[in-house]
Structure formats: structure tokens, C-alpha cells
């Protein structure tokens, strides 16, 4: 069974809704929200070892909401979200982390942040040498190394 | 039964590799057993687009989260600091920050200088040749001449200061406080077959470039060429003894899970400050009812972690973020005892250059400084790529109630009882941590940082596993003698961080390996009467 099938349709709906509450789309920054279909698909495809915790978080969220999160009015939804984050413990933290880790590897998001769309290896990065003259005052200090008499 | 070997080493990490390489010149039959396997750099996190996500799962620093077959579980529920390690050829050198300070001369004389803990039975000067040899073997970069640190001779130049280094340096100069480019085991030039650092940035969970020294690419290739045999996926359950009270060999599970007995003339334990007492306590017999080498009752006691007090903030200028090795500078300004500070002993400071976007988002959301909703994007852009961190590595003094025992329920995948940690942070350490945080805040504010957050302690910061089989000349107050041999079992040696008497205020791997080389040297000098 794939990870996508390990969440019920209702849980997937709530995951999408809460993801949009964490990170909504932005015209200003030209980025999708975390409810974007591609980002949601990434989350479901890579839940893996986090599946049980995310499912527990979504169960907790459902209990707090009493009905699908999307059907609550905005004020009530915000109230539920605050309570979820405050009382959700490890499962809620895991759900939020899953949302963030999938969002911040999306090409459109990385492009908006000015980051390259690649793994660190093999290209790496260039690191400037920096101003070593800053060390001159430290070099001028007398050497001191505490020793037993 | 397997053919007997002259020397059996348990563990292929930092100390096991060093002792194996050093003893190889004797041409004895040397076998090392490790519960893990050889690493595959092509699978390291930085080779994939999901490089940051892996840190929360398969490449977590916590064995309890990672849960690979090579890992054993650790019950650390009763400790505010969780154990982190790595199991495999290279051990925790595969997964470490490569920060490479040495213990100071004063660290070996805490009792004499400050009236606390105990003096070591050896001193810094005894270890100097082994520090130097180890620096050459591991390949160290750095700048000689630090006025507040022991003199070192790194064979490679220091890492560049990058963007973050000057921000820290300027702040430290304004405050008039010491700072210096760290010695690290990151190769800044091509070195002994290793390629130079290309700033993958995600150094801690293994270096795909091979620029960060881990013993699978430093000591082990040379040790194996010299004839040392290394068997992987072999988990040792217990050390057996004979009628003379000598170690006769070990029982282990091979890669197929089959129980084996490996006889040996000499057994060397190199399993770290948690794995070593676990093995000794699991090696109970009629002759050693309280665990092997435990007539002192000190096996597993005096566990020292180094509580890390971390403070970080965000500056207007861009920092190196994930585009550089995470550590590049240290400070020893508060290393030595000054009783006016309200505590004895001191701490080193390790500066952090920054973090990647996923780590930043997750950490900042958890701290409550990265909001949900429309303002998320603005705030994230203010934080991401602007982090500077200051960590005080506080000297943990030995206390017997901080200990490793065997968990009565928890077992590893072979049914071997798992270790249980009981640990509290002492009042002296608490005061030291508060002092470190206050100084760290001054540094960050001087650098112009805002949105300051703390981790006190860093919860998953139990990197340094020390003190649980301490060395000493008195068999009633120590587990091994001044050259690493068990007081109780004359052909049993311990070479890992367990033998530390005190912890100092710096990352210990350099000193652990220097001690392993020193013990190997002592063994070579005493081969004719090793068991006397």
C-alpha cells in the first residue's frame, strides 16, 4: 500500500487545508501555497516513516475541528489551528515539519528564494576567503595556557 | 569456532581504527568486528534534492530515530540530553561536525588546579606526539599560533572565513574577546587521496565529497593494507573469560545472525562511552558477577556529555547558511576557571555559520518566530540565510549518579539488553550554561542579531560520550590503568572516550584518538610482558 493510500480521503483533505493555513500562496512572492497539488503529492509520496505520526496528528486535528477543517469558518479554523499546535505534541510537530520540508524543496519556492535547484553534491558552493586582518588583534594577545605548577 | 587471533578490536570508529592502524606494524593477527557496514558515499544525503529531509529520518543523529539495523536502541528517557552517535565503519566520525580542538593541559589536572574531580594519570605532554600523528592521519586544517589553545601544526590551511566569519570576528573584536579559526578535519586542499572541501555545507550527516575525515577513509584503508582484518555486520554480545580470569574471546552475531565465538589473546574495546559499558555490563559471569572489569563498581558511572548551551539569532547581512562547513571558529575566552563567574572550570565556544532552508523553517516554526499564514513568507525571508549561532560546550564534571546501566526491558535486534541512561545536569554546569548564554547574547547583539533564541541544553546534543570506564592508577577508583589496560582483566584494553577522567570543554574526538594511539604505543613497548 502506498503512503498516499494510508491516509483517508478526509485526512488528505484536512492535510491540504492545514498546509494552506501554515503557508498560503503569495502573489507578492510568486509562490504557491503548501496546498499546491504538486507539493501535496510530494508529501503523500514521501511520508514514509512519518505516516503514523502524521495520521495521529490528523486524528487529533479532526477531533478538535469536529468536522472537515475546510468547512469551518475562518475564525473557528484559526482557533482550531492554534489549539492543534499547542496541544498536538510530537505528532503535530511532525506534521508541520513534513509540510515545511516538502514546501522548501519545491522548485518554484526555491527559485523565489534565489536558491539553486540542485543537490549540494557534486557542485558544492564557493566560499569567499573573508578578511583575515580581523584576526590581527587576537594574534597580538599574549599567549596564555593554564598549566599545573 | 573461528581461528584464534592475536588482537581482537571491537568497534571500527574513531578509536578502534586508530588503534588498529597503530598495532598493524607488529604484524600480529588483528581482527576488528563492527556491528555496522562500510559506508556508501553515493547514498549520503547531500547527493539528493531531499538532503535536508533525510536528517529527520534515515540520517538522524539519534540512533533511536534512525533505527537502522546497525543501530541499537538507547533508553535516554531519564536524561535531558539525548545520545547521538553513528554505527558503522568510521563510527561517529561519519556523522560529526569535524570540529577538532584538543583538551588543554589544565584539563588533565582539574583536581590539582581547581580541587574538583580527579587528575588524570597521564598529562597533556605525554599525548603530544600522538595528537600530532593523529592530526596528520586524519588530515587537519587550521591556523597554528592560537594564543589561548595548545600549539598545533595543522597540515592544511584553515577554512575560509566566508560571510559568517567576519561578522563573528568583528563582534568578538569589539568585545575584546578571543576567537580563532578552528582546527577541523575538513580538508581544505587535496590531501592523502581525499578531495578538498567544496562546501557542500551539509557536513554533519556524512560528507559525499570525502573532504571531512572519517576513519573509513583515513585510518582504515591504511590499516587494511597493512594486514588488519575487518569484519562488518558482526555485533558482539559479550566477552568471555577463562579460568585464569583472562579474556578468552567474544561471542558475536555474524551478518547472517548466526552466533559465533571468536577466540583472542588480547581484546580491545572501542565502542564509545555508552557502548563500552553496555558490553562490559552484558559480560556477566560467575567470575565477574557485576560485569567485566567492574571490581571498582565504576563501569557505566561518571557519564559526561558536555551540555551544550546554544544561542542564535539573525543578522541583516547574509550568512553562509548551508553553503559552508557548519563550524569554522572557536573561542577559549571563558575556558579557564574564574570563580568570580560563580562556577568552577569553563567552556569553549563553537560558532555556527547558519542552516539550510528546511532546517531554518522547521526550527523557527518550533520556536514560534516563524508564523503560520500570510506573514510566513516575509518572516522566512528575513530569517533564512541570516542565522549566526554561538554554542557553549560546557565542561561536565564526573558524577557517579550520571550513568549507563542495562535496561531491564529494551533490547536490540539480536536480543541483547540495551543501555539505559540516567543523567542530570549539575548545578555547576547550569551556572556555566547560563554564563555561556549571557555571553552568547552579548556576542549576537554586538553583531546586530535579533530574534534571539536559545536551546539550553541542545536536547539532541549528546555527542560526547565520556567517563564510563575511567583511567587511573587506583583499581578501587578506576576501571583501566594509565595505559588503558583493565585493572581486573590483564588482556583487556579500552581505548574510547570511556576512559576520560574529566571532559574538558571541547569536542573530544581528537583527544580520544590521541589516547588510542598512546595506548597502542604502550602495548607495542610492552609486548614482551603485556599481561604482567
From TrEMBL, chain A:
Top-level taxon of origin: Bacteria
Name under which the protein is recorded: Gluconate 2-dehydrogenase subunit 3 family protein
Organism: Bradyrhizobium retamae
UniProtKB/TrEMBL annotation, chain B:
Record bears the keyword Flavoprotein: yes
Domain Glucose-methanol-choline oxidoreductase C-terminal: residue ranges: 398-516
InterPro entries registered for this protein in UniProt: FAD/NAD-bd_sf, GMC_OxRdtase_N, GMC_OxRtase_C
Keywords: FAD, Flavoprotein, Oxidoreductase
Entry annotated with the keyword Oxidoreductase: yes
An example Gene Ontology molecular-function term: oxidoreductase activity, acting on CH-OH group of donors
Top-rank taxon: Bacteria
Gene3D superfamilies: FAD/NAD(P)-binding domain
Domain Glucose-methanol-choline oxidoreductase N-terminal: 6-307
Protein family (similarity comment): Belongs to the GMC oxidoreductase family.
Name of protein: Choline dehydrogenase
Source organism per UniProt: Bradyrhizobium retamae
Amino acid at each position: 500500500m502506498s503512503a498516499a493510500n494510508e491516509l483517508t480521503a478526509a485526512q488528505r483533505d484536512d492535510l491540504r487545508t492545514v498546509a494552506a493555513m501554515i503557508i498560503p500562496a503569495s502573489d507578492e512572492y510568486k509562490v504557491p501555497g503548501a496546498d499546491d497539488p504538486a507539493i501535496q503529492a510530494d508529501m503523500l509520496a514521501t511520508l514514509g516513516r512519518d505516516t503514523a505520526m502524521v495520521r495521529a496528528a490528523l486524528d487529533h486535528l479532526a477531533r478538535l475541528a469536529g468536522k472537515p477543517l475546510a468547512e469551518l469558518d475562518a475564525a473557528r479554523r484559526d482557533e482550531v489551528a492554534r489549539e492543534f499546535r499547542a496541544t498536538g505534541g510530537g505528532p503535530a510537530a511532525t506534521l508541520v515539519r513534513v509540510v515545511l520540508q516538502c514546501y522548501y524543496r519545491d522548485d518554484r519556492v526555491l527559485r523565489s528564494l534565489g536558491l539553486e535547484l540542485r543537490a549540494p553534491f557534486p557542485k558544492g558552493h564557493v566560499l569567499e576567503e573573508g578578511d583575515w586582518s580581523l584576526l590581527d588583534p587576537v594574534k597580538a594577545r599574549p599567549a596564555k595556557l593554564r598549566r599545573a605548577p | 569456532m573461528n581461528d584464534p587471533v592475536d588482537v581482537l578490536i571491537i568497534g571500527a570508529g574513531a578509536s578502534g581504527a586508530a588503534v588498529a592502524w597503530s598495532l598493524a606494524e607488529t604484524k600480529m593477527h588483528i581482527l576488528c568486528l563492527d556491528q555496522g557496514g562500510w559506508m556508501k558515499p553515493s547514498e549520503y544525503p547531500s547527493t539528493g534534492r531531499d538532503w535536508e529531509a533525510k536528517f529527520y529520518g534515515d540520517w538522524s543523529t539519534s540512533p533511536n530515530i534512525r533505527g537502522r539495523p546497525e543501530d541499537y536502541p538507547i533508553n535516554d528517557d531519564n536524561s535531558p540530553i539525548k545520545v547521538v552517535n553513528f554505527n558503522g565503519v568510521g563510527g561517529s566520525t561519519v556523522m560529526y561536525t569535524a570540529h577538532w580542538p584538543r583538551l588543554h593541559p589544565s584539563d588533565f589536572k582539574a583536581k590539582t588546579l581547581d580541587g574538583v574531580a580527579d587528575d588524570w594519570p597521564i598529562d597533556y605532554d605525554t599525548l603530544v606526539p600522538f595528537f600530532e600523528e593523529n592530526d596528520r592521519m586524519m588530515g587537519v586544517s587550521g591556523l597554528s599560533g592560537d594564543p589561548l589553545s595548545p600549539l598545533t601544526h595543522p597540515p592544511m590551511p584553515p577554512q575560509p572565513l566566508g560571510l559568517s566569519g567576519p561578522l563573528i570576528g568583528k563582534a568578538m573584536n569589539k568585545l575584546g574577546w578571543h576567537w580563532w579559526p578552528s582546527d577541523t578535519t575538513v580538508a581544505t586542499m587535496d590531501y592523502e587521496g581525499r578531495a578538498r572541501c567544496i562546501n557542500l555545507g551539509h557536513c554533519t550527516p556524512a560528507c559525499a565529497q570525502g573532504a571531512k575525515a572519517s576513519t573509513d577513509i583515513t585510518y582504515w584503508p591504511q590499516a587494511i593494507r597493512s594486514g588488519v582484518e575487518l569484519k562488518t555486520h558482526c555485533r558482539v554480545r559479550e566477552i568471555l573469560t577463562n579460568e585464569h580470569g583472562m579474556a578468552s574471546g567474544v561471542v558475536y552475531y555474524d551478518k547472517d545472525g548466526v552466533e559465533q565465538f571468536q577466540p583472542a589473546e588480547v581484546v580491545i574495546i572501542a565502542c564509545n562511552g555508552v557502548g563500552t559499558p553496555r558490553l562490559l555490563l552484558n559480560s556477566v559471569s560467575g567470575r565477574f558477577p557485576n560485569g567485566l572489569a567492574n571490581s571498582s563498581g565504576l563501569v557505566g558511572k561518571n557519564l559526561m556529555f558536555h551540555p551544550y548551551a546554544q544561542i542564535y539569532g539573525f543578522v541583516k547581512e547574509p550568512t553562509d547558511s548551508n553553503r559552508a562547513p557548519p563550524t569554522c571558529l572557536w573561542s577559549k575566552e571563558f575556558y579557564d576557571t574564574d570563580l568570580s563567574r560563580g562556577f568552577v572550570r569553563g567552556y569553549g565556544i563553537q560558532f555556527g555559520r547558519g542552516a539550510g532552508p528546511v532546517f531554518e523553517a522547521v526550527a523557527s516554526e518550533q520556536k514560534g518566530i516563524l508564523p503560520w499564514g500570510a506573514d510566513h513568507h516575509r518572516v522566512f525571508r528575513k530569517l533564512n540565510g541570516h542565522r549566526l549561532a554561538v554554542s557553549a560546550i560546557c565542561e561536565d564534571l564526573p558524577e557517579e549518579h550520571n550513568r549507563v546501566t542495562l535496561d531491564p526491558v529494551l533490547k536490540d535486534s539480536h536480543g541483547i539488553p540495551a543501555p539505559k541512561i540516567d543523567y542530570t545536569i549539575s548545578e555547576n554546569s547550569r551556572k556555566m550554561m547560563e554564563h555561556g548564554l549571557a555571553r552568547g547574547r552579548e556576542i549576537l547583539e554586538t553583531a546586530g542579531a535579533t530574534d534571539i533564541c536559545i536551546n539550553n541544553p541542545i536536547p539532541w546534543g549528546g555527542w560526547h560520550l565520556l567517563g564510563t570506564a575511567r583511567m587511573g592508577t587506583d583499581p578501587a577508583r578506576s576501571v583501566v590503568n594509565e595505559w588503558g589496560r583493565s585493572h581486573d582483566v590483564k588482556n583487556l584494553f579500552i581505548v574510547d572516550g570511556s576512559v576520560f577522567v574529566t571532559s574538558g570543554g571541547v569536542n573530544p574526538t581528537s583527544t580520544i584518538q590521541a589516547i588510542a594511539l598512546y595506548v597502542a604505543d604502550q602495548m607495542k613497548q610492552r609486548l614482551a610482558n603485556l599481561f604482567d
